[in-house]
Specification:
Strand order of the largest sheet: 1-2-3-4-5-6-7
Shape: globular
Number of strands: 7
Oligomer: single chain
Number of domains: 1
Distance between the termini: 79 Å
Number of helices: 8
CATH architecture: 3-Layer(bba) Sandwich
CATH topology: Chalcone isomerase
Radius of gyration: 23 Å
Helix content: 25-40%
Strand content: 25-35%
């Protein structure tokens, strides 16, 4: 008896749509795996800046496409839900503490900061703070890429101004009171993500 021929399923034709589907699947898998593996230490309830004890006013998490990018906390001498008072009249020490939850290139981080500045500064304010803005953006653009677990701290020290730290090392100071409090708008005035403002001001139910 002659054996019947083996039935062999013809190979699936590789189309551009199929290649794109496979590539997106691999990209999503690698991104989800990275998100599951990255961790960050929690923010403490109290910190000290310029000899003044500060308390955690609120926290929030920046997300992009559902993936967590960083955790941020705002520390104040007295708890407050009023962004106008924090920005306009409160001149006690302050701290913005960011903990990266995944790696971000310095160019990407700087670009996001610039985007937020464009939302919160008028053309006149950009001209007024041109030197300070260039220095501030330089803290990030001239540094290294941020890794998961990297910590960015922006302190307001009365009598000194803004003191920026990366992973515990001071990277620069910008004198004066006004610029620091203008930069606070990036998170508690018109942030790229509304939940950041709500979280930092303690308005999350």
């Amino acid at each position: 008896m002659i054996a019947p021929p083996l039935l062999v399923k013809p190979p699936r034709r590789v189309t551009p749509a199929l290649l794109l589907s496979v590539w997106l699947g691999l990209l999503l898998f690698s991104t989800v795996a990275e998100a599951q593996e990255t961790t960050a230490p929690g923010l403490p309830a109290e910190q000290t800046v310029g000899g003044q004890k500060l308390f955690l006013n609120g926290t929030a998490t920046r997300t992009v496409w559902g993936f967590e990018v960083y955790r941020i906390g705002l520390f104040l001498a007295r708890p407050s839900h009023d962004e106008k008072a924090i920005i306009g009249t409160d001149r006690d020490a302050k701290r913005v503490h960011i903990i990266m939850l995944r790696g971000v290139s310095k160019d990407r981080f700087t670009g996001t900061v610039q985007e937020s500045i464009d939302l919160n500064f008028t053309p006149e304010e950009k001209a007024k703070f041109a030197g300070e803005l260039a220095t501030f953006l330089g803290f990030f653009h001239e540094g290294t890429d941020l890794k998961s677990g990297s910590e960015v701290i922006l302190d307001f020290v009365p009598g000194q101004g803004m003191v920026a730290l990366l992973d515990g090392t001071a990277v620069g100071t910008i004198p004066g009171d006004d610029f620091y409090h203008a930069i606070l708008r990036l998170w508690i005035a018109t942030p790229l993500q509304k939940s950041i403002k709500d979280g930092l001001l303690g308005n999350v139910s």
